[in-house]
Design a protein that fits this description.
It contains ten helices and 19 strands. By secondary structure, it is an alpha/beta fold. The strands form three sheets. A seven-stranded mixed β-sheet has the order 5-6-7-8-9-10-11. The longest helix is centred in the C-terminal third of the chain and has 25 residues, at 318-342. The radius of gyration is 25 Å and the shape is elongated.
């Protein structure tokens, strides 16, 4: 089964008309995208958009053989003119399946937002799932056979992938193609980096793909350390890297700090932006979690873990530090690094980068700064991916 992506952009296209934002200003050449429209085997057209016939011609395809035109979402603005010879576009009721004379079967999947998803099975048995912009599957409770390819709004609704992963509909060989791309993420390198973290990729308009051919499927990173200064956006970046996965365990190392209202407000902000399916545990006992099997871990953050460990070995007292505290701390860091090296879980950890500023005025402050630098280096050595976040922008130090 062949899929030609006549367009891969949001309904308004990319760049958006008259939009002055930086993403739209750089959406040029292959990064410019028409509204998403998919042509399956020259027979089924998923979403009719303005200029679809010209887009097909540019891709070396024709709409002359199209036998079914299906709409996935409400189309705002003037009605799109239907090219001569094409059947009238239609929406299929949720749960209904169409059997076409060409041997294709199309089943309508209910969404949690206005729109319809379409599961297309080709004559050869290959399976494609197409989701509308801003929509995620609703009512997925039972195990589902993995699709060969999924085309979805990965940037706008990463939780759609999480729901598919939760029921097995997204497997390690599923080719996830990002469509409905808008100006939320700068095009080019940054877009590709974010998609790769979700196991997805983007292709230029006009690309033809063979469904079921296992190639170019990004490897989802298993161990990642995200560094950054205060309010740099490091926690947001870490959370973003796991928002397309279900059942994430968020490990908060800061505790509750009873009576500290400012800290409670910080914790509340973090909780509110996490997906509802994530669980939270407040602990600094990281090694047992890393040794257990289970869902991905998001550890936020290592700097607070270090504070707890330094408290436990009385590292702030010079005599205790010289009499065994330093050695005990080194042992705890080595134990943590070994657990990261051996873990089978997906791990994303956050830590502060504090070594580039003013030298602390106190001996204890300098000790903490130095030990955090050593901890970050030891943890980073065991990670495939390493990022530094500055002013909300993630710079890749290792991996992708």
């Amino acid at each position: 089964m062949e899929l030609t992506l006549l367009g891969t952009g949001a309904p308004a296209g990319l760049p958006r008309p008259d939009c002055p934002c930086a993403a739209c200003a750089t959406a040029l050449g292959e990064e410019a995208r028409a509204a998403t429209s998919l042509l399956v085997d020259g027979t089924v057209l998923l979403d009719l958009t303005p200029g679809a016939a010209f887009a097909a011609a540019r891709a070396g395809r024709s709409l002359g053989g199209v036998r079914q035109v299906l709409l996935s979402h409400p189309h705002n603005g003037p009605a799109v003119e239907v090219p001569a010879g094409l059947p009238q576009p239609a929406r299929v009721p949720d749960g209904r399946e169409l059997a076409l004379l060409t041997g294709h079967r199309v089943r309508a999947m209910p969404m949690d937002a206005p729109g319809t998803g379409y599961a297309v099975t080709g004559p050869d048995g290959q399976r494609l799932l197409y989701l509308p912009p801003g929509g995620a599957p609703a009512g997925l409770d039972e195990a589902v056979q993995p699709y060969d390819m999924v085309a979805a709004d990965v940037v706008g609704r990463p939780d759609a992938l999480a729901r598919l992963r939760a029921v097995g509909a997204l497997g390690p060989t599923t080719d996830v193609i990002a469509v409905h791309l808008d100006h939320d993420v700068p095009p080019g390198v940054e877009l590709r980096r974010r998609l790769a973290a979700a196991g997805a990729r983007a292709v230029p308009d006009g690309t033809t793909l063979t469904v079921g051919v296992y190639e170019d499927v990004p490897d989802v990173p298993r161990r990642t350390l995200v560094l950054g200064g205060a309010r740099s956006g490091k926690s947001v970046e870490a959370e973003r890297r796991l928002e397309s996965f279900p059942d994430v365990l968020y490990v908060a190392t800061g505790g509750s700090r009873g009576g500290d209202t400012e800290w409670a407000e910080r914790v509340s902000v973090h909780r509110e932006r996490r997906p509802g399916s994530w669980r939270t545990v407040e602990t600094c006992d990281l090694v047992p979690l890393l040794k257990e099997d289970g869902p991905p871990l998001l550890i936020d953050c290592l700097s607070l873990w270090l504070t707890d460990v330094m408290d436990s070995v009385d590292a702030w007292d010079d005599d205790e530090w010289a009499g065994g505290g330093e050695r005990a701390l080194r042992g705890r860091v080595e134990e943590l690094a070994a657990a990261v090296r051996e873990t089978g879980r997906t791990v994303v950890a956050v830590s502060n980068e504090v070594g580039s500023g003013i030298v602390p005025a106190t001996a204890s402050g300098r000790r903490y700064r130095d030990e955090l630098g050593r901890l970050n280096a030891a943890f980073a050595a065991e990670c495939e991916h390493l990022l530094l976040v500055v002013a909300g922008q993630a710079m890749v130090l290792r991996g992708g």
